[in-house]
Amino acid sequence: MKCYLKERRMEKYLTQTELAKLSGISRGQINRIEKGRAPKVYVETALTLARILGCRVEDIFSLEE
Known about the structure:
Elements: E1 2-3, H1 5-11, H2 16-23, H3 27-34, H4 43-53, H5 57-60, E2 61-62
Antiparallel strand pairs: 1-2
């Protein structure tokens, strides 16, 4: 899975800490997702991040071919 969370977050001028507070997800988990170290991202987490960042889940995550 390819992750564009950092790029989307930075487009909104948010730090990991700010995104964590807005989403209710720990800053550590945001960091793991951005670095590709989170083994799986739950649908609820993906939808929450997309809502906060004003984009689609597909703009944050995509399957590598």
